[in-house]
Amino acid sequence: MIENVVEFFRNLPPKKCTECGETLSEQHECYGTECEKCAAIK
């Protein structure tokens, strides 16, 4: 069962910015949905 959970997370698509669509470099403690450029604009 653990293998299935690991596979699920491994197969998730990369997280993308909700504003411009750029792929985000993810961090385990980050819940942001915008890239640094778009977040700085606001």
Characterize the structure shown.
The protein is mainly α and 42 residues long. The chain has one domain (2-41). The chain is built from 2 helices and no strands. It starts with a helix and ends with a helix. The relative contact order is 0.19.
Question: What is the count of DSSP helices, taking H or I runs of 4+ residues?
Answer: 2
Tally of domains: 1
Could you say which overall geometry the principal axes of the C-alpha atoms support?
A: elongated
Average pLDDT confidence is 83
User: Helix share of residues?
Assistant: 25-40%
Kindly provide the radius of gyration, computed on alpha-carbon positions and rounded to a whole number of angstroms.
13 Å
* Number of strand elements: 0
Query: Could you name the ranges where pLDDT drops below 50 across 5 or more consecutive residues?
Result: none
Organism: Siminovitchia sediminis
Protein name: Protein YhfH
Pfam families: YhfH
Give the helices and strands, then pairings.
Blueprint: H1 2-10, H2 36-41
